[in-house]
Design a protein that fits this description.
4-stranded mixed beta sheet, Restriction Endonuclease, single chain, 5-stranded mixed beta sheet
Amino acid sequence: MRRPPWLYLILIKWAVLHGDFLGPDRRALREHDIEEIIATMARDLWGAVRHPNDYESHYLFMRSTFQQQLWLQENFFVAEIGRQSIFFLNLQPDHSFRRKFSEANGIDLDAFIELALALASQFIANDAARSVSEEFFVNLTTAYPPGTISSFLSVLSRDFQSLRTSLESINPRRSVLYEFIEPTPLSRFPLLRDNKQYYCHQVHLLYRSLQSFVYSVLRQADANSFITQFGPLFEQYLARGLSHAAVSFITEGELAKMLPNYSQLVDYAILAQGGTILIDAKAVDPTDLGLIAHKAEVVADKVKPVFKAIDQGFEVARHLRIQGISNDPAPVFLLVVTYSDLLLGTGPDFYKYVGQRRIDKLTEVYGGTPPVPIEHIFFLSVNDFDLLMEYIRSTGISLVDFLSHAATGDYIIFRQYIPGAIGSPSFPQYLVAEFERLCERLRALLQKNERKAP
């Protein structure tokens, strides 16, 4: 590819939505033809898309541009699949997540994750691979109930006509201003089904879809119910990371005993010798509009739970000081951990360009001075959190010292503060071990079925 992949993906989307792709006069395109079409498209649409000055701030422009590129520059497949396994394969057999996933997709949750790994292996092991067929899974056919392989591929794919129908139902009135920069809706259907072959639109897109598919499907089915049930799992996961890094912490329940008259609590608090760190998990996901909006109030509205976490952090910080548990001048930090990247940048940037009005409202009860300094507020995705915990464990640096240094930085995603996290990420052993366990599980299934083969 000579041009950014998102240009090819939007061309695929528009061709499916508006093209006569089944007409008798269609012909195969050569690479030169596609390059010409892309060049013409980029030139003709230049005046129709938003430019930097069309955004309320450079911060909002950088967010929308960054989200367009980030998923292509990182490959966290091992960590993400391992995390999906930790969250969902360890659920009780009668857990509602299992039932809901099976009802929505016609396939058992365990089978989906195992087959997702098998599918990804085709493209990881073979750079030239462009498609798969059901025949690729032949040694797994008898490992699952009849029709499982077909259901798995059907969930991830559409043929030309059904892809058009599906795309028409996704933001049908969205203008080209947004289409040109939105996360591609093809991530929901990363395979194109044609004549018993399943073609991969783009390999990174396939990985991105597989590694978060279970989470995304369950959340989309019923967001409120999902958050209620997933919240405790998320909190337990963060506790695992803190323990992995040998960081002593107190839970929300323990905080409740220390601050018995207050209900606005965070999930965890680290009462270290050099300072206090408050951690709150929020199962908020960025909507497409929340990532690409050119107006600050739109972004603020899409990340309301983040303001809730800040409010909780302020309240806990204040009362820890009142009780003499946390004392000035020891610093206080707040980590707001979400499952996905929200791309909110630093605390000061978020305050200045998105949340000033709302955060000022929260600080009124504290005399206008936030109990947690704005520059000590950080926004982490679960990937950021895992990378941070592994860095703390492997280096022995204190979390307070790390955050004190990070407070002087100016990055849009937290992991940019962590040496090696961009380019050579090092994830905790519990994720690597879970991925290896999943690989071994798949290997055992293959061996068992190979022995049954005539």
